[in-house]
Write a structure and sequence with these properties.
124 residues, mainly alpha, 6 helices
Length: 124
């Protein structure tokens, strides 16, 4: 798969983006650290990946605050930061031998369940 596999003008549909990205992440997980950003994260280990997830979560929160009363640039910054957060979350799942499908399955399971009821079901 080439580096343009996920480009906006490529034929990859939005519904296939997560599957395609998952395949790219699998391929790059065992690549040489100097050849791939994803591989470099995997080589640095879970703590580095979690650091990146936390960093991106913070940046997303800050971008959301800016977007609340901002213009188009602030709204686009929020989209960009959210994409970074999702991406690094997918790297985290990949590092742990998991992928997005389990998350999608969990979201699907929650359809039709009250958010309050779902949260209460997780408490001991």
């Amino acid at each position: 798969m080439d580096s343009n596999a996920l480009s906006p003008d490529n034929s990859t549909s939005r519904t296939d983006v997560l599957d395609t990205l998952n395949e790219v992440l699998k391929q790059r997980r065992h690549a040489a650290a100097e050849d791939s950003y994803v591989a470099s994260l995997h080589h640095k280990g879970l703590n580095k990946i979690l650091e990146k997830v936390g960093e991106e979560a913070t940046e997303t929160v800050l971008a959301a605050k800016d977007a609340e009363h901002g213009g188009e640039a602030e709204r686009q910054a929020l989209i960009s930061e959210t994409a970074d957060l999702w991406f690094h979350s997918l790297v985290m799942l990949s590092h742990l031998g998991m992928d997005h499908q389990a998350v999608l399955d969990e979201l699907a399971r929650r359809f039709g369940i009250s958010g309050h009821a779902e949260k209460a079901s997780r408490q001991p």
